[in-house]
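Morning F.,

Quick status update on the modeling queue. The single chain you submitted on Monday has been processed. Sequence for confirmation:
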Amino acid sequence: MFTALTMVGGFVLFSLALSISEGTYGTVIEKFTKSYTGHIQLHKKGYFDKPSLYKTLDDFDSINEKLKKVSGVRSWSPRVYSAALASKGKKTSIARIVGISPEQEASTTLIKEKIKAGTFLKYGTDFNNDIMVGAGLAELLNLKIGDEVVLVGQGADGSVANDLFKVSAILKGDSYSVDRNYCYMNIKTAQSFLTLEKRFHEVAILLFDYNNAQSKVMELNKIFKDSPDIDILPWQVIEKQFYNTMVFEKRGIRICLLVIVFIVAIGVLNTILMTILERTTEYGVLRALGTRPIMVFNLIVLESSMLACLSIIVGFVLSFILNYWVSVHGIDYPAPMDIGGFTITTMYGLIYPGAFTTPAIVTFFTAFIVSIFPAIRAMKIVPVDAMRMI
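Structure tokens below.
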């Protein structure tokens, strides 16, 4: 009984840890990628490694038609980028102009949910001087809704770009947010301001499932094979530092899970050894009756394996109930966590096959492996010595 309880407890802890790990990271990835980057991005070749105002794409209609044919793609949005100086009164700060298509951007990222004050850019308007500013820029320039800001930058034709813009919204976050110094404006306004005509720098793509990003990149590379000047990158490359940090943390969690497995294995080994010591006389009787050593070995291993299977069944039921509860209700963080202007207060579990198959495989083989040594000990019992214990 104690052996079974140990294996059931290990199974449940293992499964819960996997569920919470994947659920938490899934939430963070979704918030982070939908906050700004998207799951896949298209650029002019070389733009990602060395951004330049002049490295632009110029045929959005063609890209638009090709993306419509790709399954698994939810939405996409073109963007324009440039550096500029933003000024209000005697205060000046570096800003990054981001030209977006308001309607497409709203369906691709969660930018509308990041608005702290004001209103989102108007749909269906080609030219207006409304801008949305990041929290850091708003703090540095002491901006409020309705304030006017002077933006000065470099035009694509070599001219000096400058104009007066009106703050329509201020985004959530602080001076450390990813988009802290961004100035969002209508892409038509940005193209006119930077004399880019209809050219753009990026297309952000949102998928139905972020896990398919790398496979979709391979598919898109085939579709865009006639456009060798386009780079197609998944979020794992775009946010390499963020991705590597997550991978490192997951490895740390796996080490903790291995510790749990080790503790369970020691408990199972100890219990089986105690059982064999208590039943030494019985094994001696079996050997005296002519039972071959290999049959004693098989008996103990089979017994442990069957106990592991029973524990897996019970553990599966308990884990599913517990994981489902955590996936619905979640567990509150001790302190809110900010991700790119979004606050996450609860970690949720994720019900997926690996949260049950991995613990099941580990539990079974752990029980199988730790039963081998006690089984060898039992098969070497000398009948005469065992009978003396009666």
